[in-house]
Known about the structure:
The complex is a heterodimer of chains A (about 250) and B (about 300).
Chain A: H1 7-11, H2 14-32, H3 34-38, H4 56-67, H5 82-88, H6 123-131, H7 133-136, H8 147-150, H9 158-167, H10 176-186, H11 188-193, H12 199-210, H13 221-229, H14 243-248
Helix pairs in contact in A: 4-13
Chain B: H1 3-8, E1 13-18, E2 22-25, H2 31-50, E3 55-56, E4 59-60, E5 66-70, E6 76-80, H3 83-107, H4 110-115, H5 117-134, H6 136-139, H7 164-173, E7 175-179, H8 188-201, H9 208-218, H10 225-229, H11 260-273, E8 275-280, H12 289-300
Antiparallel strand pairs in B: 1-2, 3-4, 5-6, 7-8
Amino acid sequence: MRLNFKHEWIETNIGLMLVLTMLAISVGGLVEIAPLFLIDKTVEKTEGVNVRPYTPLEMRGRDIYVREGCYTCHSQMIRPFVDEKLRYGHYSLAAESQYDHPFQWGSKRTGPDLARVGGKYSNEWHVQHLIAPRSMVPESVMPNYPWLATTLLDQSDVAGRMKALRAVGVPYSLTEAEREANVEKFGAEVAAQLHIADAKKNLVEQANLGNYDGDKAGVSEMDALVAYLQVLGTMVDFTKVNEDELVRSR
Amino acid sequence: MSEQNLQSQTVQTTGHAWDGDLQEFNNPLPTWWVYTFYVTIVFSVVYWLIYPSWPFGKGFLTGFSDITYVNKAGETVSSHWNTRALLMEDLNKADEMQKPYFSKVAASDFGQISKDPELSGFVLSAGKALFTDNCAPCHQQGGQGVVGFFPNLTDDDWLYGGSYDKIHQTLVNGRRGYMPAFGEVLSVGEIDALANYVASLSGIEHDAGKAANGRALFSSETAACYYCHTDSAKGRQDMGAPNLTDKIWLWANVPGSDNPEGKIAAIRSTISTGVNKGVMPAWGERLSPEQIKVLTVYVHELGGGK
C-alpha cells in the first residue's frame, strides 16, 4: 500500500509537529553524545588517575564559583594543543570532571583556563586577587569580589547538596556499606570526607585547618572558593600515568 | 513572489489551500545546491573511513589514518588518528626545534649559559614567556614585586640569596618565610623602641633614646630578633630573614607613608603581627628541570644576581 503522505497532516496538527521537531533536533545529540555513555574508554581509568569527589568545603566553593559566574570568563578544560600544554600543563582528562555537575569546561576565555590553577599560587594571592584583581595584576579586567571575604558561608544545606549530587552519581556515602566502598576506592582519609552525615563537621575542620582566607574567625565564602581553586587539576598524578594509554583511549 | 509568476502559474504549489485560496509555492532547490548537498554526503563517508567516527559495541571505529610519535621513554608508538596522538606528534616537532637549545641548557652550568651569547639569548626570551605565565601575577611583569606581598626580584637584596644555586633552590622547593608575632610577647613600649631602632638602621628620622633601648632589646633574649636577623641586623638568608639595614622594605609598608611617624608605625605593626603570609609556591613538579634552569638564569639576570 502506498502511503499518501501530506505536509498538511503535520502542518495542521501542532502536537505531531512538536514531537517530530523534537525528534529531528535530537538526532545530532543522540548520535554524538549518547554513545559516549556506552563506550568503556570515555572516562580514563589508567594508573595514577584516581580522581575523588570534592570535599564538602570544596563543593561549596564550587557552588560559589558557579553563583558568581566565574565560568563566563574562565574555562576549565585544557585542550590537547602544544600552546595550551606550554601555558597550562597537561591536557584535561574526562576523568577529571567526572564528578562535576554541571561540568565547567566552557570555551569563553576572557581570563586564563583554570583547570590546573591548583597549587600555582598561594592562598594569600587568591584572596587578594579576588578582593581586588588589579592590586595583583595591574592590567586585569576581572571584577572585584570583596564580599566573598566578608560573607559567612551558608552551611545549612551542605548535606542536602551532597545528597543531590549523590542522586546523579557522585559517590558521597549515606550508608555504612557505601562508606566502606569509598574506603576501598579512595582510602580512609578521603572516604571520611565523603560521608554525608559528617559533612558540616568536615567542612568546618577543613576550613579551620587550611585557613584559606587568612582570617581565623568563621568560615567565609572566600575559604570555600579558595579551597576549591587550590584543588583544581591536582588530583591526577601525571608521573604515574601512561601517556600512550591516554592516547589510545581516544 | 512576483506578480508575473502568479499569473503565469509556472511554479507548482504544494497543493494545500488555507482559508479557501491561500496557497504555497513549491519552488525546487537550485541544482547547484542539490549537488553540493550530495557531495557533502560523499565527503562524510570518506571522513568516517579516515577518522574515528561511529560507535561500535563498547568501543568505536578508529578509522584508517595513523599517527606515529616518539614517547617519553624514546619508544616509537603508533596510534589511530586522534587529537591526543596529534599533540604528541606536534610536541615531537616542537622538541625537535628547541632540542638544540634545551639539551645545551641541560648540559651547561649556570655560568656557561650566561656567557654563551646564543644560549643566553634563548634563555632570556624563553624565560620571559615562562615568567609571564607563572611568576608575573605575583612578582609583576618586570619582577618589581608588590610591597606587602611579593619581593622585588630586580634589586640586589635577597631574602634567600641571589646566587644561581640559591635561586634554583627557591624555585624547585618554594619558600615560606615566617616571623613570629610579637604583639603578645612584648609590651607596646618595647615594640615602639624596636621600631625606632629598626627605623634608625635605614636612616629614618627617629627618637634616639627609644632607638638605644631598641638596640639593646634587639639582641636580648627577651625579643631575640638577633637570632634570625643577626646582631648586626643584616639578616640570615638560611632563615629568609631580611637585611633590615638596606632601606628596602617588603612587609613593613614604609614607602607607603611620607612622614617618619607613619613609617615607624608601619614597622611597629609588622613587629606586632609578625609575617606568615610569604608563600612562594614550589615549581619542581609543575615545570620541567630545563624550564626551571631557564627561569633561574632569567631571574638572576633581572639585575640583582650574585
